[in-house]
Structures are given as C-alpha cells and as structure tokens.
Amino acid sequence: MGINKRIAVVSLLILSFLVMLPGLAREETKWIRNPDVVYVGTPYDVVSKMLQMADVKKKDVVYDLGCGDGRMVVLAAQKYGCRAVGYEIDPERVGASLDNVARNGVEKLVKIIQADIFTVDLRKATVIPLYLLPEMNRKLIPQIDKMKPGSRIVCHNYDLDGIIPDETVTIVSNEDNYSHTLWLYTTPLKRKQ
Q1: Other CB atoms within 10 Å distance of the CB of residue 25
Q2: How many structural domains compose the chain?
Q3: Residue 101 pLDDT more than 50?
Q4: Is the pLDDT of residue 21 over 50?
C-alpha cells in the first residue's frame, strides 16, 4: 500500500472516530415508541413558579416526566441543590436534555433517562411537575398513588381530574404573555366525592 493510500485510510479512520465521538459520551438512545405529545417547553418563569409551589428543598428528589430539554430538572438542581431525574421517551429530546445538563454543570445532581413515563416507578420522587394532556395525567394517577405521603405534584394547564388540589394559582408568563394555571397536590391524593 502506497503512502498516499495509507494516509487516506488513516484520515478516514480518524474522521469516522471524530464523527462518532459525541455519541460515545452518552448512552445510546433509540425509539421506544412514538411520543404521546409534541414537545412544548414550559416558560422559565412558570417552571420557577411550579418549583416554588412545590416548596422544593435540597433533600427533595424531583422527577420530570416528559422532561423535554431538561429545563425543569436543571433549574431544580441549580436553584435548590436537590437531585432531579428527567424521563423522556424521544431520543432527540433526551439528547437536548443531556446537553442542557452538561452546559449548566449539574451532572452530579441531574440524571436523564430515556423511558416511557407510564412505566416509571415514582416512589423515590418527592416532587413531580407535570405538563401533560388531561388523559396522560389521569393515566399517571395509579403511579402517583404509590408515592410517599407528603410528596407534591404541580400540574401545568391541565389538572388531575377527580382530585382536589391543595392550591390553584394562575400567572401570566413574562416570556409568552399567556395565562398559565397551576395546581398543587399533596399525597395521599384527595378524591372528589
């Protein structure tokens, strides 16, 4: 093999390695199934209010179901110093969340897991912020029922149907100028009669 051919082969191998390098830094993601909703990020001022309503403390463990770009878990770790786990089914969103976690330097506190949220064991969570459709919230109630007493759930724009909230707040976001309703619930959930 001539010197030019060797250089070409080595260059091709190096280029292939460099293209693969970003993917080696994180677990491989794949399609589990199609997402239930299209990702719409919660405005940051609403994220902040949700965490405030849940009275997040350093000892809490925040689970964000359908974490999108990871903004909720990143802010929880930054502002409160608590541990947080983001669950996301969409591989593209998992990548965006991992990038956000790394960019903000909260890797020691935040974990991003690709998973179907309806299969996640919620018993270790003490705070769950939710921005999901009503039927998805309803489907999560049996999982929420298994959480420790005193755990807090804050729903954004869609409540937990048939459950009595501890508090309801409506705020206008400075980011999108829209009104957002938030509901706070504490476990054990209180059913409407």
Answers
A1: 8
A2: 1
A3: yes
A4: no
Mean pLDDT of 104-128: 97
Q: Is residue 129 part of a domain?
A: yes
Q: Among the listed ranges 14-18, 63-67, 162-166, 179-183, which one has the minimum average pLDDT value?
A: 14-18
Is 90 within the bounds of a domain? Answer: yes
| CATH number of the CATH domain containing 94 | 3.40.50.150
Residues listed for the chain: 193
> Residue 36's pLDDT is what?
59
Residue 10 lies in a domain: no
Q: What's the Cα-to-Cα distance from 115 to each of 29, 80, 118, 145, 159, rounded to whole Å?
A: 10, 25, 9, 20, 23
Cis status of the peptide bond prior to 91, with omega within 30 of 0: no
Residue 79 near residue 99 (C-beta atoms within 8 A): no
The range of the structural domain enclosing residue 167 comes to: 44-186
Q: What is the pLDDT of residue 9?
A: 43
Residue type, 127: V
Q: Specify the pairing of strand 179-186 against strand 167-172.
A: antiparallel
CA atoms in the 13 A half-sphere facing the CB of 134 = 5
Is 4 inside a domain boundary? no
